[in-house]
Specification:
The chain is an all-alpha fold and about 280 residues long. The protein has one domain. It has 13 helices and two strands, in the order H-H-H-H-H-E-E-H-H-H-H-H-H-H-H. Strands 1-2 form a two-stranded antiparallel ribbon. Helix 2 runs antiparallel to helix 6, helix 4 packs parallel to helix 13 and helix 6 runs antiparallel to helix 7. The chain is globular. The termini are far apart.
């Protein structure tokens, strides 16, 4: 039986700090390689996808929408004393997102199931990023990282009733979501179909630069999302992935790991994360 955390929303939650593993892993820029995977996993949840379909501007400019979502979440992780305020602000942005999904079930973005599922994909994405493109994290470190994810989630000020108490319980929860709750939704189908006229995330990217980058943001992102998806889920959804694709993914991951060693520290993290680390060391 899944063990759940007690409700901690009445308690004062300390923000994460420079000693945390989350500071080390969440701001890692290699996570951008899996941002489409995270978005796809989130939108395979029928109620979450309904909220996106009915309340989001994702369809107008999907990459701009994805990139806009990153700084506020980074501000919760790296915001120090301002983290609880930013977490509650993100929570409040979702108060009016509600409706009925494709199965006729009522949903609300702040329901424990939906909000926690989105958070779970961000936590699991840290482990997936390191497994694929960095140094795999051992079980004890995963447990510590998971416990930090509970502290992080508590900063949003929501009920903790759906939060597994430890990493073993989280893995049961994760498998249950993959096996029983996720399905092919209209939003996921739209993403996987690709866009011949995909707009650039920012106006300054228009023109020749976007002609070069568009295949990366379109076909490349979809290829990575499908290829890095949990194998059982990919097979259950009937998404094509060949031996040749797997070999290319392995070679790409090796290239990323090799080039990463050559980058200076400041280029390995999101600017917000790097700035927070410098402040913690008294350099800013």
């Amino acid at each position: 039986m899944q063990t759940l955390c007690s409700n901690t929303t009445e308690q004062q939650i300390d923000p994460l700090g420079p000693e945390s593993l989350t500071w080390r892993y969440f701001g890692d820029l290699r996570g951008l390689l899996l941002i489409s995977r995270v978005g796809l996993l989130q939108n395979l949840h029928p109620s979450l996808a309904a909220g996106v379909q009915e309340h989001s501007d994702l369809f107008l400019n999907p990459w701009n929408r994805l990139f806009r979502s990153i700084p506020p979440i980074l501000a919760v992780v790296y915001g120090g004393k301002n983290s609880p305020t930013m977490g509650q602000q993100i929570r409040d942005w979702h108060r009016q997102i509600k409706g009925v999904d494709a199965h006729g079930r009522r949903y609300h973005a702040l329901s424990p199931e939906l909000f926690y599922w989105a958070h779970a994909t961000f936590f699991e994405g840290q482990i997936a990023t390191q497994t694929l493109f960095g140094t795999p994290i051992d079980e004890a470190t995963q447990e510590r990282l998971y416990q930090e994810s509970i502290q992080w989630y508590a900063l949003y000020g929501l009920p903790m009733t759906t939060v597994p108490a430890d990493y073993a319980a989280f893995k049961d929860y994760w498998r249950g979501m993959l096996d029983k709750r996720l399905e092919m939704t209209d939003v996921a189908r739209w993403f996987l179909a690709g866009r011949q006229k995909l707009p650039p995330p920012y106006t300054w990217m228009r023109g020749p630069l976007w002609w070069v980058l568009r295949p990366v943001f379109d076909r490349g992102a979809r290829w990575l999302a499908v290829g890095t998806m949990p194998v059982e889920l990919r097979q259950r959804l009937g998404l094509a992935w060949s031996v040749k694709d797997q070999r290319r993914l392995r070679d790409f991951a090796l290239l990323v790991r090799t080039l990463w060693k050559l980058l200076p520290q400041r280029w390995r993290y999101f600017p917000q994360a790097h700035a927070a680390m410098r402040r913690a060391r008294g350099l800013e």
